[in-house]
């Protein structure tokens, strides 16, 4: 896929220091954007790249594909849903991540 910008460039992952959740979180203003309308967010940022690991880059919309909520009331709820869907879809590269997450 041709990305609108380099995922490791200044607009993306800041020289490969930011991955997954961090890239998405940078697109959100916690004070201004909540409640967050998922479809509006995906419309605006859906084609932006998110680096998952050192060799995998996916579009924001790919991560949001399996999120069923239309809106999130706060940052914590959004991050929990993102973490869950990222783990379920193989977008969670942290070694041992499953040991930190129990059945909620």
From TrEMBL:
Pfam assignment, any one: DUF5785
Name this protein carries in UniProt: DUF5785 family protein
Entry superkingdom: Archaea
């Amino acid at each position: 896929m041709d990305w609108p910008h380099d995922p490791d460039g200044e607009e993306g992952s800041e020289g490969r220091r930011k991955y997954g959740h961090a890239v998405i979180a940078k697109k959100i203003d916690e004070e201004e954007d909540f409640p967050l309308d998922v479809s509006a967010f995906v419309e605006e940022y859906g084609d932006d790249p998110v680096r998952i690991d050192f060799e995998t880059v996916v579009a924001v919309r790919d991560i949001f594909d399996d999120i069923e909520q239309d809106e999130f009331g706060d940052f914590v709820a959004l991050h929990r849903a993102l973490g869950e869907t990222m783990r379920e879809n193989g977008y969670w590269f942290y070694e041992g991540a499953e040991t930190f997450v129990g059945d909620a």
